[in-house]
Amino acid sequence: MEFMEVHARYIMRLRKKLEYKERKQSYRRGVFSESESVRWLNHAVEKIWPICIERIVSQKILLPIIPWFLDKYKPWTAKKAVVQHLYLGRNAPLFTGMRVLHQSPDDDHLVMELGMNFLTADDMNAVLAVKLRKRLGFGMWAKLHITGMHVEIKVKIGVKFLRQWPFLSRLRLCFVELPYFQMTVKPIFNHGLDVTEVPGISSWLDKLLSLAFEQTLVEPNMLVVDVLKFASPQPENWFTVNENRPRAHAKVEVVEAADMKPSDSNG
User: Fold this and answer.
1) For 93, which DSSP code?
2) Which position has the higher pLDDT, 216 or 265?
3) Which pTM was predicted?
4) What is its main location (predicted)?
5) Could you tell me which residues are beta bridge partners of residue 80?
6) What mean pLDDT do residues 211-228 have?
7) Of 202, 251, 237, which Cα lies nearest the Cα of 75?
């Protein structure tokens, strides 16, 4: 009888130990699974996007930056190009991946890679005004209406921290590879002129983004944000674009590979 009681207590302790280990492993799987996914981030951004993030991105970040690219890459037919209105729509960007890089080539305290897919809703609304040169359009302004946009990017972000507010000193951003970009553009007619048919304008917007991205924002080029200036009451000159021309190009073709070590989070 005593032997049976001892055996029963042993079985009970063993069962509890196994249940504890199973719960612990289940918890660890859940933690690792959620930490590797970005569902939590997408859910948060989706809720906050229409409240404040869209306005911050479009009005505080993109509107000051876009004129730099328009001025640098405007076509010969345009004397000036300005963004008159920018609303990115109700759809928030979707983050497809996130990982921390453990080696920083410079003095960044933290380096991350983010994958993002941004497909705007049908309520996106942006107006780009182009002032044609006098010999083409008598110096008149013509407008383009951007009604849709699709962006797929992988961006690298370097962060340098501070010990006091705003706790971030600098952000450095660049594209890991040339992004995919498409947009829907319709002319807003001005005196019967379809500005998209003007020589140099028709293909300008398509070339603008690919050229601008490739020459100025794809690694090793980068956008550098001075967070202290950006957070000041009167933000001025808070970003610079560092264009680092590569010294050489190498084309590598992998013919065969075996026993490769997985480097991505998904294996």
Assistant:
1) P
2) 216
3) 0.71
4) membrane
5) 131
6) 83
7) 202
Side-chain-side CA neighbours of residue 179 (13 Å)? 28
Q: Is 194 exposed, middle or buried (0-12, 13-18, 19+ CB in 10 A)?
A: middle
Give residue 88's pLDDT.
Answer: 95
pLDDT in tens, 119-132: 999 999 999 888 87
Number of alpha carbons in the 13 Å side-chain half-sphere of residue 8: 5
100: amino acid identity, one letter: V
- pLDDT at site 263: 66
Phi, psi at residue 261, to the nearest 5°?
-80, 125
The model's pLDDT over 137-193, given as tens digits with 9 standing for 90+, comes to 556 777 888 889 898 899 999 999 999 988 999 999 999 888 888 888 777 665 555
List the alpha helices (DSSP H) in 132-240.
134-137, 204-212, 227-230
> What's the rounded mean pLDDT across residues 18-32?
67
Which residue, chain included where needed, has tokens 């319709």?
A: 186
Domain residue spans in the chain? 37-243
Question: Which range is least confidently modeled, 34-48, 73-87, 124-138, 168-182?
Answer: 124-138
Contact call for residues 215 and 246 (beta carbons, < 8 A): no
Query: Closest by alpha carbon to 213, among 181, 237, 178?
Result: 178
Pick from 156, 208, 218: nearest CA to 183: 208
Phi (first) and psi of residue 36, to 5 degrees: -85, -20
Please identify which residue in the block is written with the tokens 């083409």.
136
Rounded Cα distance, 83 and 64, in Å: 10
Can you tell me the distance from the alpha carbon of 120 to that of 147, in angstroms, rounded to the nearest whole number?
Answer: 9
Under DSSP, the state recorded for 193 is B
d(CA 205, CA 235): 28
Nearest to 89 by CA among 53, 129, 39: 53
Q: Which amino acid is at 22?
A: E
